[in-house]
Predict the structure.
Amino acid sequence: MAALASEIVICRRCPRLVAWREQVGREKRAAFAGEDYAAHPLPGFGDPQARVLLLGLAPAAHGGNRTGRIFTGDRSGDFLFASLHRTGFANQPASTGVDDGLRLRDVWVTAAVRCAPPANRPTTRERDECLPWSLRELELLPAVCVIVCLGGFAWDAALRLRAELEDRPVPRPRPRFAHAGESPGERLHLLGCFHPSQQNTFTGRLTAPMIDAVLLRARAYSRSSSRR
C-alpha cells in the first residue's frame, strides 16, 4: 500500500486538477497562511484489514489538499470522524492533521477523485481517470465487502469500480443513489449516504443519527458477510 501511495501522490493525469490544487496551495486561505499545503493527490488511509470502505467525493481545497489526508481538517471531516468514533470505527472523534493520533478500525477512507477540484465539482472524466487507483487500492484490501458511498458522485464511481472488479457490466437499470439505499454485488455491497458537506449537515438533510445508522448497517453487513 505504501508503494501505491507513492505513485498516487505524484499523479498528474488531469491538468485542470493539477492546476487548481497547486494554485490553492500557493494562494492559501488566510487562516492557514503559515502552513505548507500538501497540494497533491491523496491516497486512502485506514485499517489494511478493513471490511468497510468509505468512498467520498474528493479532497477539500483547504482540508485534505492542505493536510495531506482525505477528510482531514475540514467541516465535512469533523462530521464524518465524529460519527466514525461514535460507531466504533475510530479511536477519536476529530481529525486535524496526519500526526493527530487518529486510528481507524475495520474501515478504509478514500475518495472517487484524489485531487481537490474547482468548486468541489470533479468531472466524470476525472472520476474515470482516478478509477484505476481505486481498483488497485481494493486489490490490496481483500477483506472489503461493503462500500459506503458518500453522495451520488461516489455512488456512480462505486458502481463502475464494482463492475471492473467483478468483471461484469453495471446493472441495468442502474441502481439509483439514495440515502440508506443498497445495491448488492458478488463481492461488494454498496450503501448510500448523503455526503457530510455543510450543505447537508447545516440544513438537517443529514443528521448525526442518520449517518450513524448507515455506518452501523455497514458494520452489521460486513460481519454477516465474513461469516458466510
